[in-house]
Every structure is written in C-alpha cells, then in structure tokens.
Amino acid sequence: MEIDVRNRQLGVQINNGFAEIWLWAPRARCISIFVNNRYLSDLSARKFGYWYLKTNGLKHGDVYHFEISSLNRDDEAVRRSDPASLWQQQGVHGYATVFDVNSFSWEDDQWQGLPLADYIIYELHTGTFTPNGDFDAIRKKIEYLKKLGITAIEIMPVGQFPGERNWGYDGVFPFATQNSYGGPEGLQQLVNACHENGIAVILDVIYNHVGPEGSYFDTFGPYFTDRYSTPWGKAINFDDADCDPVRHYFIENALMWFRDFHIDALRLDAVHAIKDFSPHHILSEITQHVEQLSKYTGKPYHLIAELDLNDNKYINPNEQCGYGIQAQWVDEFHHTLRVAAGQTKTGYYEDFNGLADLAKSYKDAYVYDGQYSFHRKKKFGKKALGNPGEQFVVFSQNHDQVGNRMLGERTSQLVSFEMLKLLAGAVFCSPYIPLIFMGEEFGATNPFQFFISHTDPALIEAVREGRRKEFSAFHTAEENPDPQSEHTFLNSKVDWNSLSQPSHKMLLDYYQYLIAIRKSNPVFSNLNRENLQAYPFEKQNCLAIERWQGMQRVLCLMNFSEVDQTIQLQQSLNQYQNILNSAAQNWGGKQDFVNITGDNAIILPAETILIFKNENV
Predict the structure, then answer these.
(1) Selected catalytic residue, list 306, 311, 331, 357
(2) Residue 559: is its pLDDT beyond 60?
(3) Which pTM value belongs to this model?
(4) Among this protein's residues, is 306 annotated catalytic?
C-alpha cells in the first residue's frame, strides 16, 4: 500500500461523518466489525492481506472490535481489538474506542517548532513526575519548566501497556495513548499547552519490540520474525516475508504522532536492536516519509535515536548513505563523566578512564571510535566525522542510568552536593544538546526504580528474576525492589515537597542560572564542536574546556578531585570574566573568590566548576 503522509491508512479514520477502516490481516478468511457489541458489517478483502470498510455506522467514542475467521476453517473465530487502536479505554485485553484525531481544536497555529540546537531537554515519566501521574498534571507544571529554562520535554513511552504502572517499554498498542494518563485527547491538550508556552515535545517510541502481555499481533499476521531475537522478546519483522505491511504499520505510527498529535520529535528507543538487512533500512524509510510530511505541513520534525553502536551511519543524511536520523543519545559521555566523578569501574564503566576519555568525548562525541573495548571484547565504533554538536544528546543521568541501577539511586544519593553542581556544569558546557532527568534540577533524593503492573504470575516472576540477574555486576548484596509492588512505583514519584528545603531550592536556582548562561552566551548556544579544545590534567583529575565563537571565548575549568588542585593554564585569565563559580557561597560553597596565583596558574577548589568568558580577544 502506498503511504499518504496527509492521512492515516490504518485503523479507524473519521472524515466527513464517515469512518474508513483499514486492517492488515493476511491470516484471516473473513473479518467482521462489531460496534458497541453489535454486528455492523464485514470488511472487504484487498490486496496483500488488507481489509477495508467505509461506513457511517462508527463514530467518535464508539467501542469496536473485529471478529476474525482464520484461513484454517477448523479454527474458531476470535474477537480482537484493533492493532492500530488509538484508544484502549478498557486496557490491553479490552476492545478499542474510536478516537477522531480531528475532533480536538488546536491553538498552536503560530508554533513553528525549534531547531535541535535550541533544545534543552527535560526527560520525564508521566506516571511518576507528579502525584496525580497524568498529562493534566504535567500541564500544571509547564510554568515551572518554563521558568527553569526548559525548551523541550521528553515524555517516556505512552503506548498502551498493561495496568497503570510501567516505564512504558512494555507497550502493546503503539498507536494507543495510555488510558490511565489521560488517553489521546489528554496528550493533545498537553502538547497544545506546551506549544503555547514555547516548549517542544519529544515522545519516546519503541520500534524494536512489543511488550509481553496483551500483544495479539500474531492473530492478524506475521508482525514478528524468527530470524532474529531481541533482549525483550521476538524481533519485529522488518525484512522477512510479508514485511512490507509491517513497515507500513510503523511508518504510519511515526507520521501519526507528528501530524495528528503535533509532536515535535520522536526519541527512537534502542535502534541498535532493530534488525533489518533489507536494501532500504526501515529507519531510512521512516525518515524519508517524515521529511515528506514536513514539506506538506511546513513544520520541522526531528528524530532522535538511542544508539549503542557508535556508528554515525544512523545520523548521516540519506543522501550520504545514512539513515537520516537527526540526532542520537551519547551514553559514552555519561559513562566517562561518571568515572571522572568517582564511579566504580564495574560493568560497562570498566572501559572508561576518566579525564582523558571525557576530554575526548567533548571533542569527538564517541569515546570508542575504532579502538579495542575490553568490556565488549572487540574493536568498537568509528569516528563521527562531519557530524555537528547538535546531533548528540548528553546527560549526567537519565531514566536508564538511574532506573537500571538495582536500587534506582539518583545521583544525589551517590555523590556530594558540590559534585552535583559540577556534573550539571559539565553537561551544560558541552557543545551538545543537554538533557536532564526529572527532579535532577533540585537534587531529588527518592529513587527512580523499575516497576510494572502485569497480571500473569509467571510473567511477574520472570521479570523479578530478570532484574535480579541483569545488573548483578553493579549490586551484589542489596535486595532488589519488587517491580510488581505498588510501593516501588509510589517510591519513584518525584518528591516536590523537598523544594521547601534550602539546599534543594539552591540547586534549582543553580540549574536555572546554568541554563540562562547556556542560552544567553553565543559560544555556548552555538553547538560547534570544532571550535573546542579539551585539556585533561589527569594527575590532578581536572579538565579545562575552551570554546569560542568569532571573537568570543569561554573557559570551563573543572576539578573532579576531593581536594583543591593547582593547574597551569595555557592562556592568561587577565582578560576573562568569571561568570560561574560553583564553590561560591550563594551556591552553597565556601569560596567566593577565584584564586589566580600568577604565571597562568589557578587553584581550583575541590569538586568545582569555574566558567570564564572573554569578549575582548
């Protein structure tokens, strides 16, 4: 089927009082649709296993399902929800509810989106970001985020998952917005409100696997392939027999979020786990259709990959034989930053050597770009040549790096208050897109742990056992929190009451100041990683970063050690103005003055970042 970027051709689409229904079910002999538990009509068979119906008997809010008679006449007919359902009010095991995406009155006509270089990302999980845990509660926090300086929120996956407690990566209805969060209209209202306040919205989506409970795709057709496997179950069929309609399904999903929900960017989960050896990779096909949609609407849309391969083929343009994704997360920046801050070198941290590797990541993005990795036991990565800074997203923590610790400890529980300020400064001094994780900005102390709400006892126990084994390299003695327990979920909710404490309010003010520097200084706001030099002082565990834009320069000096250190600079600070001293008393430190000893030497207080600017070069 040819894809029309203007209209969705899967599931139910309402136009001019009529519902058009498209369903791919090559394993069916006959398909009937029932509306509010009453038979409405049979669908007519089309080419390549598609079924179609146009009717005025289906409207917004109706509950519907399909009755599917198998090609094997000995099998009983089964009743199933629509795999492209937009609204699962009854949960993953229930039937679909018709949602007319055009019923919402958008008020964001003036919103033209933001370039990626202007993104300052705030990652959040809808269920734990607020006490109420829904889209409406996020809307009530928009003013807070705006004051902080955030320009884009990134929402963890909202595709319908089992129950009400889940990170979102167990979704089984990729088109349906989680019912307990407020459903599809709640998401539209949130996006509309964000745009009215100048904030872009990134949505995390999963195109590499489907969750283990409530997935009925096998009823309809070969959505999965036995050729490959993923750490989370069956691999999606992107290159095996009958893969074309499966590719169509996920392309339509990406287009829907942009076109019908006005999402600005999609964060594509773990694209390295997408198995596709066809001549035209599914990611490349998605980016090409998104580009077509952008031309049609006149608005920019962005795709950001979570990628664990250090392969810039994913973020290179299609015309350069790349996949055309605009940006990617860089976990290696996080890993080497954490090692510099004293993280124990176990698990995947064992490959990183602190300051030298951190200096390399500031300049090259990838730390491993062809050398041997002891953790992977092979040579790994290639150089990211020609890729500007705006193609990389960096962070000192995110949902994975917090939640995939067995106990889910936030950074605030692992390092000192001074180190928290240094880590934040290290991220915002980079020539990359900065991301912070909800609550990080005020040093939230409660954990963010892994939680689920499955119904199958065997599956629940399998998840428990998997959590015990997965991160044993990080924790050996502690008891793993029960992911099925509601207490684990409630324990992970952001504690906003802590903002009444002076230290938390001080850290929030510090983040706000950092973000203001980032936005107002043209050196920081221009993400040119070519105009950067990094000087590691490995013996002192210190790092100097120099960046420039035209005649303006900034110098960022970081001391990751627990004692004061003297470092010898290559430039004089006579013409530089200090614009940030994380050790100052107004940020909870003890030293307001900058101690320059002459001969371009400076004494850096322990666990401190100093930022200088020079506009008179």
Answers:
(1) 306
(2) yes
(3) 0.97
(4) yes
